[in-house]
């Protein structure tokens, strides 16, 4: 069983919801990323989404765009993420890790080489923002053969017919984008999220996880009432940006932000 599937099974048995933090690998420098990952787990992370820095992150708002710029300015490449996950796995063999990013860096390496390397170091899933399931006929089977889950996005504007296609191809969990727009945009409405998740539950048994607009414990708890998982990115990446010149101060801030969300969700 994939670590992602196992984690959701454990959470379901406990009556708890998944807390899934996102950080951009290599921000503010590649030497800090693994420490941040461990800090997030200590604060209550169930799954970690590790962002692959890219020069044109079109789905992301200014916060994550700037994080990509900081990571790229320090020379962070996709192949460096394999080393990060390998190091993380030396002391954490259970927390699922999902690589989240865009197709271009993967194509530069090659589908098979990417899947082999990701699987070998202990990656569990891949979310490629700009590869819809209709275009994943080659990549998807390569990932599946190496035990890597193909994770897809569903938006508020996604039609039921298209959502059914996405659900049929998805693995691990479904990432529901709660807002129209880019990451870090306006506040979400939990009732509206619940209304959009209802038809998806008729289409799939995949856990439904909600991202975009999760800012604090209150918003995380509200979403946890209607979803199987809560994904938080910009709220954490903002803290990294605020202390980019003092990296030692970042891990405690990440733990404070995520810890508040964990406590609110569990309450």
TrEMBL record:
<feature type="active site" description="Proton acceptor">
    <location>
        <position position="60"/>
    </location>
</feature>
<comment type="subunit">
    <text>Tetramer of two alpha and two beta chains.</text>
</comment>
<keyword id="KW-0057">Aromatic amino acid biosynthesis</keyword>
<dbReference type="InterPro" id="IPR002028">
    <property type="entry name" value="Trp_synthase_suA"/>
</dbReference>
<dbReference type="InterPro" id="IPR011060">
    <property type="entry name" value="RibuloseP-bd_barrel"/>
</dbReference>
<feature type="active site" description="Proton acceptor">
    <location>
        <position position="49"/>
    </location>
</feature>
<dbReference type="InterPro" id="IPR018204">
    <property type="entry name" value="Trp_synthase_alpha_AS"/>
</dbReference>
<dbReference type="GO" id="GO:0004834">
    <property type="term" value="F:tryptophan synthase activity"/>
</dbReference>
<dbReference type="Pfam" id="PF00290">
    <property type="entry name" value="Trp_syntA"/>
</dbReference>
<keyword id="KW-0822">Tryptophan biosynthesis</keyword>
<comment type="function">
    <text>The alpha subunit is responsible for the aldol cleavage of indoleglycerol phosphate to indole and glyceraldehyde 3-phosphate.</text>
</comment>
<keyword id="KW-0456">Lyase</keyword>
<comment type="similarity">
    <text>Belongs to the TrpA family.</text>
</comment>
<dbReference type="GO" id="GO:0005829">
    <property type="term" value="C:cytosol"/>
</dbReference>
<keyword id="KW-0028">Amino-acid biosynthesis</keyword>
<protein>
    <recommendedName>
        <fullName>Tryptophan synthase alpha chain</fullName>
        <ecNumber>4.2.1.20</ecNumber>
    </recommendedName>
</protein>
<dbReference type="InterPro" id="IPR013785">
    <property type="entry name" value="Aldolase_TIM"/>
</dbReference>
<comment type="pathway">
    <text>Amino-acid biosynthesis; L-tryptophan biosynthesis; L-tryptophan from chorismate: step 5/5.</text>
</comment>
């Amino acid at each position: 069983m994939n670590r992602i599937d196992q984690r959701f099974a454990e959470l379901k048995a406990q009556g708890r919801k998944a807390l899934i933090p996102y950080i951009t690998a290599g921000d503010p420098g590649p030497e800090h990323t693994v420490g941040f990952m461990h800090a997030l787990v200590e604060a209550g992370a169930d799954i970690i989404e590790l962002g692959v820095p890219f020069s044109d992150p079109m789905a992301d708002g200014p916060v994550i765009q700037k994080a990509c710029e900081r990571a790229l300015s320090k020379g962070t490449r996709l192949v460096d993420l394999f080393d990060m996950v390998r190091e993380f796995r030396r002391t954490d063999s259970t927390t699922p890790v999902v690589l989240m990013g865009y197709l271009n860096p993967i194509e530069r390496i090659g589908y098979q080489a990417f899947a082999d390397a990701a699987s070998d170091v202990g990656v569990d899933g891949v979310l490629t923002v700009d590869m819809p399931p209709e275009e994943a006929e080659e990549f998807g089977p390569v990932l599946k053969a190496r035990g890597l889950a193909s994770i897809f996005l569903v938006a508020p504007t996604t039609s039921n017919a298209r959502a059914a296609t996405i659900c049929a191809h998805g693995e691990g969990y479904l990432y529901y984008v709660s807002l129209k727009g880019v990451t870090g945009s306006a506040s979400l409405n939990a009732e509206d999220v619940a209304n959009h998740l209802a038809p998806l539950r008729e289409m799939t048994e995949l856990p439904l996880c909600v991202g975009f607009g999760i800012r604090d414990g209150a918003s995380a708890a509200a979403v946890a009432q209607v979803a199987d998982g809560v994904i938080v990115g910009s709220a954490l990446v903002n803290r990294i940006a605020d202390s980019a010149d003092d990296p030692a101060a970042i891990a405690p801030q990440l733990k404070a932000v995520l810890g508040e969300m964990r406590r609110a969700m569990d309450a």
